[in-house]
Amino acid sequence: MGMIFSMAPRRLILLALFVLGLCLRLWGLAWGRGEAASPHPDEWAWRILESLSPSQPAYAGLFNQFFYSLAALGKGLAEIVAGSAKLLLGEARFVAEGVVPSLMAGRFLVALFGAAQAPLAYSLARGAFGSVGAGLLAAAMIAVSPLLVTQSHFFSLATPLATMIMLCLLAAHDLAKRPGARSCAVAGLACGLTVTTEPMGVWALAYPALALALGLWRRVAAPRRLLAYWPAVFALGLAAGVIVGSPWLVWPDDAQGRGPWALWAISQPPEGWWAHLARRGGQLWELLAEMGGLEITGLWLAAAALSLGRDRPLALLIVTAPLPFLAAGLAAQNMSIESVAVCWTPLATASAGWPLALICRRLPRYNLQVAAALALGLLLCLTPLWRSLGLAYIFWQTDTVAAAKTWLADNLPADAPLLAGPGCPPTIFQQAEPAAKGLAAERLIENGAYLLWNRQAADAQAPPPGLQRVASFALSDRWSPMAAAPGAANPRWINPVMEIYGPARAAAVTRPLALFRPSADVQRDYDMIYVGNATYGQNSQTMLLRGHTWRERVLRGPGPLDSIAVHLRNMGADLALVEVRQGPGLGRVFGVFPGQDEELIVEAKAWPPMSGGVYPVKARLLRGDAVLARIDWDPLIIGRRALEREDLDDARRFLAKALAQQPGSFDAGALLAGALTELGLLDQARKVMDALDGEDGGPAKDFIELASRKPDAAWLEKLRRLTGYDPALLLESLGHAYQIDGPPCLPKEREAPFSGPGFSGVLRRTPGGGELKIWLDQPMPAGHGEVWLDFAEDRSAPEGWAGRAQVWGHGPEGSRLLAQHGVDARTVARGKSMRLSFVCPKIGQSLEIRLEGHGGEPTLQRLRVGVDLAGHIAGVLRWYHDAKGRLALGEGRYAQAVEAFEAALASDPGFDRVQLPLARALSDAGQAERAAHIARLAEKTFTAQPDILAQLRELYLALRLADDAARVEKSLAYLRPSLKFESRFEGGLTLLGYDLPKAEVSPGGQLDVNYYWRAWSRPPTNFFIFVHLEGEGRIINFDHLLDHGRVDMTSLTPGQVVREDYQLSIPTDAKPGQYRLVVGLWDPRFTGKGARVIEGQGNGAKEVVLATITIK
């Protein structure tokens, strides 16, 4: 620490710039994760490095080997350190077990060479121009240059070559300033190593020659030394550098690599030299404009102009140093334009700070000069730093090729045909084949083939027109507004725009459906979700949280996101504490009780700010067993879920936004109308319904027709015309297929387990048949689902064979039968398919498929589980009919109201919220008998809902059913406390009051107390109710569950009232005196804490005092 404080400020600044440049180059260095588009610049380089070892230190026939040898040395040292550390920690038995990937070792050394350019630029500028400010400005511009940061992430020779050229230039500068044998030898050694880094480095030989000429011109030594001795020393240093850098050069017969002589074996470009130079110059100009190099070009030209009018030969040497490499790079035909820019930019930057330093020197005081230099440095470097941070973040994220590979694995069957276009790796998918030129959309659709396309491949123009794009992966298509070039192209070879096309005609989805899609892989720790791919993609944003491991989903949107919903479902048996975080900083911790669902709607926060449209969401368990966390951004999905949990304000807000984004969406309109009518906003609901109905019935008529028919080919075609979805692609994205291929062939075993991708099962054989059970790995979403069972054709099945297929759902609340259907011999014999529809009441249900047979064993060939589209449409229509009925009822159109409410019940017989308004509509329509029947059904359904019972009583009176009204009045009286005492507890319960017939009791006697509890929300856990008698230095405890354990609080619905009649048995040894009757809620199993009163009597406390009891 003392050494740091003793350093000069300029050295501290230089050290900080070096560290900053190194951090920018190291961030995201492990990009690619094993997959990259082809051709890939790192592939050849790391394979060379992989072949080097202590026993084979040189690569046969390779001339430019210096950098590879240096990288191999660094890799070997790192492996020794890693192996020794593992050996000391007991994680390895030998030092050789410490393995460092060759790709990472090479990239790390490239990043180190790139960061070293900053101090080299400082030394060159300070020595040539005599200005510390010029040197620091040059170092700062190199440290944060987006172009140099980008290219330092590749294991290529361009960045090391530029560093070695700068080292040669520094040695030549030292030779010109202090000529001697040592400086000549150092310059020769540096030039030799530069030439063996990349043949283009041969142009660096011009620097020592110019330095020697400058020494001769200045007559700093005798001509004999300048012309003979020093050149000989330089030649010896050059030879040593060449031999060290390229040991295979002493065996020229074996040399197969490209040597420096290759620069003179240049053939004329096909388009001619002038056209070639113009084209390459235009490419370089475009690249510098995109990557922030034009300001460096302008400053370099200014420095060149200033050096011409001054007698400063050393400055002229530094200023003109980039010219030979610029000319050679533009003339080269086998060198990428990025490599030319990477070689030219740091050399030009070394002199770019000089004009700015001269401006600052004109200020009167030193403090002003320093402040001006600092201001200019910030002005020049803030925007490049901002963009470099964004570029480094893009490298750090999952690249687009890996994201496309994950999407293909999640959404395509293993046997789906896939054609990979130019620039796409053929190993990206199991069935991938190279795409032939001249592809036709009709041929792809006919063969049912998908197409993978790289928009930035060198020989890719455009995919066949007319194909349906199902996924697009464009990570770096949105720069920050602070960027100098908002439309900048992606860096080559990294994150190309990958697109996937399906075998269907292109069509826009005009009426999106609010579908809860099945999960792809909930065990994945990290995934980048491209939100625009949700139309034909499965749900990849669901995570299963276990342990304390962070799991993260990064949302990449084509535009800004307003809100993100995180749905938490506790799948374990313990209280779960979940930490949710967006970006850096502290996260928010949420408690979720077993079996509870928690919906968190948070403001979307982009991170980092320099990369627009990137929204990271990460979560982990701090306590608990397992939590299913689902992330949503679509307002249609968020609004649907809010409506189903009866959060009407959120439902209205998000559904209105969804309808504004897609005015033609029937789902958004129907669900919004349902929310508005529930809120009593009938005028707004009427406007929405008018748009849905239209003059001729509108889309509502078409959806009602779909709901009335069974799904078949014509049904799917009508759905396509109505919504814009391609039916085949939609069904593919809404389910999982499992290849079963029958039971295992183990006839002697009574029980045989088996498994496959995504499932496990067991076959139990019995003398009369067998039972097949299959458990699926991926959890199901809430809502309507279906199972398709495809039987293998079995003509040998006996005629008397009979069986049964069942679908079971398992969750934290237990198991339940979701669907069942009989299977006959004809279905098995002919290899037919059978469909079972079911409804998952909660997200996260794991499915079990049971198939029982008597008289033989059925052979199940294939199993498919997915979303039931017909059931989904019916579920949306119930809200549409409900809203339509309530509007008609309010407008006095009673016949239409009856028709609408009955249609709602036909869509979902369990949609009991329409029973009361249906009874009213029937009554007003003059159908008294039917009204009474529906009213009695509603009375049974809402037997513990005083608000609804009161309305039913008024309805019975209007129907002149005195006995029914009296019966309801009796129920109301039973749920009405004689002593009102309202206290609202957190956790979902309100104490309405109590009955206390007497307040005096004797020891050993009984005290009767009735409590009245109303649910204002569904309680998250089954709280204990504590009742205490406190007084005379003693607490008499009467803890119990609600209604003596007969009612589970988690089953309560909002508005439900529970009366519990309780007898307090007073101990015989109770002392006479005054006792307080105290009541409260507490959770002894998970938190050990009481529920606080949030409103009413005892607000803020964790208990309420009801009365004073006298024991005498």
UniProtKB/TrEMBL annotation:
Which SUPFAM superfamilies does this UniProt record tie to the protein? Answer: TPR-like (SSF48452)
| Domain (ArnT-like N-terminal): residue spans on this chain | 104-225
| Leader sequence residues | none
Report the superkingdom from the record: Bacteria
Q: According to its record, what are the GO cellular component terms?
A: endomembrane system; membrane
The membrane topology of this protein is:
Multi-pass membrane protein
> Care to name a GO molecular-function term for this sequence?
mannosyltransferase activity
Which GO BP terms, alphabetically?
Answer: protein O-linked glycosylation
Pfam families xref list: PMT, TPR_19
The compartments listed are: Endomembrane system
Which residue ranges traverse the bilayer?
94-116, 128-149, 154-172, 200-217, 229-251, 287-307, 314-333, 339-359, 371-396
Q: What is this protein called?
A: ArnT-like N-terminal domain-containing protein
